[in-house]
Amino acid sequence: MRVLHCISWLSMGGAERQLYYIAREQARLGHEIHIVYTNGDNIPAGYRNSGVSLWKLSCVHNHDPSLILKMIGLLRRLKPDMVQSWIIQMDVIAGISAALAGIPWILREPSSANAWPSNMKNGLRALVARTAKAVISNSSAGAEYWKKHIPAARCVVLPNALPISEIEGALPKTGRISEKRLVLYAGRLNQREKNFLGTLIALMEVVRQREVDVAILGDGPERKQAQEAVQAAGLRHRILFYGQCDDVWAWMKSASVFVNASFVEGQPNAVLEAMTCNLPVVLSNIPAHRELAPNGTAWFVDPDPPSSILNGIFAALDDPAEAAARAGRARALVGQFSVSRAASDYLDVYDRVKG
Predict the structure, then answer these.
(1) Per residue in 234-285, pLDDT tens?
(2) Averaged pLDDT for residues 24-28
(3) Diameter of the chain by CA atoms?
(4) Fewer CB within 10 Å, N side or C side of the chain?
């Protein structure tokens, strides 16, 4: 099968990482896989010699209307059997282009309803999605959102892909400044969806009351404000910001607790990776996390107020035996998230809908 995946960037955000895993595996299985993108030249090295063909469309900005004409030109050149879009800007561009070219397309939903407030941009996406053969969500919450916009029969739930053997092969982080126990945050430093500033308040209190350090991996719009708050509190040697890291799994294997107190999620890669690393997880009590981590595999907290997050972290830190037991039960669940399973499941959907 010839498949064209459409995304804005290739650098490693959540959707980009999922595409990276799935496209390479689909190519390994013998399919002709193409990716079209519009921004950046930071191409992950793993695409080299993967059998995946990359195409960049030049544009003035993400909403450049000329992208539709350029996309149609690429579709006529490649003649794919299936088009799949991975992020909101490309959902619109690829969806319109595929519909005009008469090629079946699929939209991939990475989040859930709260990520898509009512506005013109999200309304246009929902309108274009009516022409999609299917919407593949990585969580039941994502599928429920789309059932309000398209027939339920077109809504499919496929869990994320996880490179389990690669994660298992990662070694713990070496050369840390401190040997204290470590509380880890890894994700976008964003308040509206990730509740990062609320989480930071809890983390600042954790280091005041326990002999632990905090490592924050990732970047985002709240980073500068967060660093200033940590500096003002005199905690800059206890709460360290490392930005985007290529060795997240090594950090996870060196930590005592992982915290994700987001307001909204689909199926977060970082939580799955922490579970694979046998790292105890403290998660916000939202449907996406409840679906991912059944009872007895995590500590669930209210994302607001920060005191609830704080108490969850304390519970995990103060009972190492229970933390190990919950982490072990969570680790037993991750086999279902293999990359080979995910790539094959996507191909099955393509086969089912392309007629």
Answers:
(1) 999 999 999 999 899 999 999 999 999 999 999 999 999 999 999 999 999 9
(2) 98
(3) 62
(4) C
CATH for 2-161+338-353 (3.30.365.10, 3.40.50.2000, 3.40.50.150, 3.30.70.420): 3.40.50.2000
Which among 192, 186, 188 has a CA at the least distance from the CA of 116? Answer: 192
Q: How far is CA 322 from the centre of its chain?
A: 28
Domain 165-336: homologous superfamily in CATH: Glycogen Phosphorylase B; (3.40.50.2000)
Half-sphere exposure of 27 (CA within 13 A, CB side): 20
pLDDT at site 42: 86
Task: Say if CB 35 and CB 10 are below 8 A apart.
Answer: yes
Q: Is 168's pLDDT higher than 90?
A: yes
Task: State yes or no: pLDDT of 62 exceeds 80.
Answer: no
Q: Boundaries of CATH 3.40.50.2000 in the chain?
A: 2-161+338-353, 165-336
Contact residues for 82 (Cβ-Cβ < 8 A; gap 6+): 1, 2, 3, 4, 103, 104, 105, 106, 350, 354
Q: pTM for this one? A: 0.92
Evaluate whether 244 touches 42 at the Cβ level (below 8 Å).
no
Q: What is the pLDDT of residues 72-109, one digit of tens each?
A: 999 999 999 999 999 999 999 999 999 999 999 999 99
Identify the CA nearest to 323 among candidates 284, 281, 288, 287: 281
Distances (CA, A) of 22 to 29, 39, 343: 11, 20, 5
In this prediction, residue 177 carries a pLDDT of: 64
Q: For residues 83 and 275, give the distance between their C-alpha atoms in angstroms, rounded to a whole number.
A: 32
| pLDDT for residue 123 is more than 80 | yes
202 alpha carbon, distance to own chain's centre: 23
Q: Are 186 and 268 in contact (CB under 8 A)?
A: no
What pLDDT is stored for residue 355 in this prediction?
Answer: 67
Cα atoms found within 13 Å of the Cα of residue 297, Cβ hemisphere only:
20
pLDDT given at position 175: 78
Rounded CA-CA distance 211/213 in Å is 7
Residue 290 clears pLDDT 70, i.e. is over it: yes
